[in-house]
């Protein structure tokens, strides 16, 4: 059976390989001391919150991986490196996942269950799901808990996508609106500055003109000079 069985688990043999039963053992992390020849790893109903990079890299024979009914929120991009070719069944149902990186399931050939997670339906999730071989028995239980468009919350993701909805378009539209709002804000600031500048200069020009008007004209000075000469 290769390496010793983890203390918190029970190991048995199947066709010369090892089945590791670790379900309902209050485990908080994926064990690192698993037998090298593990073919089936059952970790359901524990308290695991994360699948780190290369968590199963030393298990080249792994075919079945059950991580259902945990508290998994995070799946690292390289979580399944090393088992992408061998893995046949992957159960991640009944966890706390809202999103996963596109790279996490890259090149996986396994039948995957992602049902009963609080998925946030947006562009990345759409791209992930289109590349996966989802378990047909639970595919309609993969639902949008939240969505970039509130009207799709509570609906099965595949049903929404099959209706022609493209979440990536919503992402681009949201980005375009944000850019427009930003540009409009800058434009408004520029216009406000120009208006302030013009009004400020108009006020200065008006004061300067009034000052010039208050000065005696040359004809008035000439008349005053003639009057003084006559008196003298």
Account of the protein in words:
The chain has 232 residues and is α/β, with parallel strands linked by helices. The protein has 4 helices and 11 strands; from the N terminus they run βββββββββαββααα. Strands 1-2-3-5-7-8-10 form a 7-stranded mixed sheet, with no helix packed on it. A two-stranded parallel sheet has the order 4-6. A hairpin with a 2-residue loop joins strand 1 and strand 2 (17-21). Residues 171-178 have low confidence and may be disordered. The chain crosses the membrane at residues 177-198. InterPro entries: Leu-rich_rpt, Leu-rich_rpt_typical-subtyp, LRR_dom_sf, LRR_TM_domain-containing, LRRNT. This is Leucine-rich repeat-containing protein 3. Its main location: membrane.
Give the topology.
Layout: E1 10-14, E2 17-21, E3 38-42, E4 50-51, E5 64-66, E6 74-75, E7 89-91, E8 111-113, E9 119-121, H1 123-130, E10 133-134, E11 144-147, H2 157-162, H3 167-214, H4 218-231
Parallel strand pairs: 2-3, 3-5, 4-6, 5-7, 7-8, 8-10, 9-11
Antiparallel strand pairs: 1-2
């Amino acid at each position: 059976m290769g390496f010793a069985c983890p203390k918190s688990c029970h190991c048995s043999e199947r066709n010369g390989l090892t089945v590791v039963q670790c379900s309902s053992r209050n485990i908080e992390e994926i064990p690192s001391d698993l037998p090298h020849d593990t073919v089936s790893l059952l970790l359901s109903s524990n308290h695991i919150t994360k699948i780190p990079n290369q968590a199963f890299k030393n298990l080249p024979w792994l075919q079945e991986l059950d991580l259902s009914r945990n508290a998994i929120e995070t799946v690292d991009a390289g979580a399944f490196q090393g088992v992408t070719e061998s893995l046949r069944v992957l159960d991640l149902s009944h966890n706390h996942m809202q999103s996963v990186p596109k790279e996490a399931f890259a090149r996986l050939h396994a039948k995957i269950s992602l049902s009963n997670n609080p998925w946030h339906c947006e562009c990345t999730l759409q791209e992930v799901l289109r590349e996966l071989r989802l378990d047909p028995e639970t595919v309609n239980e993969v639902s949008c808990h939240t969505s970039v468009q509130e009207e799709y919350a509570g609906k099965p993701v595949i049903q929404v996508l099959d209706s022609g909805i493209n979440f990536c378009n919503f992402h681009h539209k949201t980005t375009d609106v944000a850019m427009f709002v930003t540009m409009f804000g800058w434009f408004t600031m520029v216009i406000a500055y120009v208006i302030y500048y013009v009004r400020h200069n108009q006020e200065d020009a008006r004061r300067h003109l009034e000052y010039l008007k208050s000065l005696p004209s040359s004809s008035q000075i000439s008349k005053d000079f003639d009057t003084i000469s006559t008196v003298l």
